[in-house]
Design goal:
Elements lengths: L2 E3 H11 L12 E4 L16 E2 L7 E2 L2 E2 L2 E3 L5 E5 L10 E5 L7 E2 L1 H13 L3 E6 L12 H16 L1 H4 L6 E6 L1 H11 L22 E4 L26 E6 L7 H12 L4 E6 L18 H11 L7
Parallel strand pairs: 1-2, 8-10, 8-11, 11-12, 12-13, 13-14
Antiparallel strand pairs: 2-7, 3-6, 4-5, 6-9, 7-10
Helix pairs in contact: 3-5
Length: 305
């Protein structure tokens, strides 16, 4: 897959979408988030690769790509068919404990689902693994803020509405999505070009079995790096009660959102565990994409404009 700096893609999109009435899909094209060396630290010590091995984890009877040693953050754009394109877009953040990325389970497959409901999926491959003894590294947040700005800056070329760009994350990626949704008022890196003058606040947030939101040592029981206010984006969340990461993550986050009067929808299921992605099984928690689509339709996010 060809990887280049993202500015080249924006030029290509502008020319492709101007050819008559036909719209050429930009699906599965990958571009660098940063024009040169990314800010912050790079903890990768080897070549980027799938680290799952021959006996790797399976979900719903299928293997999972556990992408490791990511030092070059990229975006991959998945565009829905022109006749289905609602104009909404979502930045997708796979999970993996900030150590690896569950790249297909919580990335590629999710973008494909988003396309099926008329939403452009933008898959963020952020930097992993986290530096040692750093549970919430700044580098993934830098990558996420920069990515949101890039997508919004070029919304017209991508055929999306700059006021309907959300973020969706799983597990540690859910933590990253929550951090992006609550830390938009401050830059996590020094500006490098005009893209960085654009707002990094998502217009909505989707958190699927998010991690690291709950802090039992905090007075509010919410992680200190999640400054929720009335301007925090409307949020959809789901989790299983028997998730070993802990349903306290969504419960405490939802309570804080309620106290800030942020519109929130929470689905907590009795069973289903952790790390199921969007692969459907007989566990009702895995049907969350249906509930999420309903929420997006009810809030007007999927209305074609």
């Amino acid at each position: 897959m060809t990887i280049r700096y993202i500015a080249a893609f924006w030029l290509a999109c502008a020319s492709l979408t101007s050819v008559g009435a036909a719209v050429v899909s930009a699906q599965d094209q990958t571009f660098k988030v940063w024009p040169s060396t990314p800010p912050g630290r790079i903890a990768a010590v080897g070549e980027e690769a799938d680290t799952s091995g021959p006996d790797g984890r399976q979900v719903a009877g299928k293997p999972v790509i556990r992408l490791g040693n990511v030092s070059t953050p990229t975006l991959t754009v998945y565009t829905p068919p022109a006749d289905k394109n609602s104009g909404a877009a979502v930045l997708v953040c796979p999970g993996g404990g900030y150590n690896i990325l569950a790249y297909d389970l919580e990335g590629i497959e999710v973008c494909q689902w988003l396309n099926s409901i008329g939403v452009t999926g933008v898959l963020l491959k952020y930097r992993v693994p986290r530096p040692e003894k750093d549970p919430r590294p700044i580098e993934p947040l830098q990558d996420a803020q920069r990515s949101m700005r890039l997508v919004r800056h070029q919304a017209a070329q991508l055929g999306i509405d700059p006021a309907r760009i959300g973020v969706l994350g799983f597990s540690a990626g859910g933590n990253l999505a929550a951090r992006l949704s609550t830390n938009y008022a401050e830059n996590s890196y020094a500006s490098i070009d005009d893209h960085d003058a654009v707002a990094s606040r998502p217009d909505f947030s989707i958190l699927i079995y998010p991690a690291y939101l709950f802090d039992k040592e905090s007075e509010s029981l919410l992680a200190a790096d999640l400054p929720i206010t009335s301007k925090t984006p409307p949020t959809f969340m789901t989790m299983a009660f028997d998730d070993n990461v802990g349903p306290e993550n969504v419960l405490r986050y939802a309570l804080a959102l309620k106290q800030a009067e942020v519109p929130t929808e929470l689905h907590l299921y009795p069973s289903g565990g952790h790390g199921f992605g969007s692969r459907r099984t007989d566990q009702p928690v895995t049907w969350w994409p249906d509930r999420c689509e309903e929420w997006m339709r009810a809030t007007g996010l999927l209305v074609k404009q």
